[in-house]
Amino acid sequence: MPWNNQTGGGPWKPGPKGPWGQGPLGGGNGGGGNGGPPDLEELLRRSQEKFRQAMPGGAGGARGIALFAGLAVAAWLASGFYTVGPNEVGLNMIFGRYDAKTSSGLNYNWPAPIGSVQKLQVTDRNSTEVGFRGREDGRRANVQTQIDVAEESLMLTGDENIADVKFRVIWQIDPVRPEDYAFNVREPRETVRAVAESVMREIVGRTAIQRILTAERKLIEPAAQELTQKVLNEYKAGVMILQVQLLSVDPPEQVVAAFRDVTAAQQDQDRLRNEAEAYANRVVPEARGDAARIVQEAEGYREQTVNEAKGQTSRFTQVYQQYKNAPEVTRERIYLETMERVLGGMSKVIIDQNGGSGVVPYLPLQGLNVPSVQAQPQGGNR
What is 126-251's CATH superfamily? Predict the structure, then answer.
C-alpha cells in the first residue's frame, strides 16, 4: 500500500513523528505529511476552541452552559402555544390522555412529547349519503353523478315488498361534547351511516309499501331523525343530527311499471271517493230538509184538522144545547139557514100559493135564462 512508503508508517501504524500516523509536526493545515489524511484530533480540538469562545464566560464556563440550556427549555415551552379557529374546538391531551377543551383564539398546552392538541370543526355541517354516492363529474364542472349502492338502498317493507330508499343525513359535531366524537367512536362517519341505515330499515320494515310511496313519506323523515339521534346518544358519539332528507322512495326497477299502475289506481279511487262524499254532502242535507218540511206540514195539517174538528164539535154542542131549549124554533132556523145556503146562488122563483087572490102570478121566463151573478171572492182582482 502507498501508506507503507511514508516515513513514520501509515495512518493506522504509529510512527516516530506523531501518535496518529501524521506527518512531521508542523506539516500544514493539520493534515498528514506527504498527502496523508486530515488530523481528526486537530479538527476536534479546533471545534471545541471555537465553541468555548462563542459561549459567554470563557472556556468551560458553567454559566454559559446553564444559559444555553435555559434558552433551549424556554424555546421548547414556547412551542406549546397554538391557535384555534372560529369554527373549531381544541382538545388538549397530556401523554395521550384527554385533559380539557379550548375555544377559539390563542391557547396553550404542554408541547410535544408531553402534550398534543386535536382540533375539531364543530360548526361545519357534514353530509352522509345512504343508498347512493355522489361524486363530481370530471367532464362537467359543478355537476355530480349518482352511483347507486343497492346493498344499502333495497329495504324490506312491512307487507313483504321491496323498496328502493335513498336518503341523506345532515349532521355536525356536538359542540358541547366534542371529546365524545374524538375518543368514543373509532369511525364516526361510518357510524352515522350505519346507524341511519339501520334506523331507516326499522321504520320501513314497520310500514306498508303503499303508505311509504304516498302518505307516510313526510312522517318518515322526523321519525328517522329522532330515532337516529337517540341511538347515537346511547353510543355517546358526540354527533348532532340536524336533518334527514328522504330523496327518493321507489319500488325496484323490475316492477316499477306495475307499481305506477297501482299508484294511479289508488289516486283514481281517492278521487272517486272524494266525488262521492261531495255528492253525499250535497244530497243528504237536501233530503233531510225535505223530510223536515214534510213532517212540519203534516204536523200543521194535523193541528189544523184537530182544531177544526174541535170547533165543529163545540158548535154542534152549543146548537144542541139551544135545540133542547126550543126544538121547534131551532129546527126551523136550521132549515132556513140550510135552504139559504143551498138555494142562495140559484136562479129560482118561488111563488107562495097562499099569497092571496089579489096577486097576479107573473113568471119572468126571460130572466130564467140569465145566468146568476156570482159574488167575487174576497181578495180578488178588482
Answer: Band 7 domain (3.30.479.30)
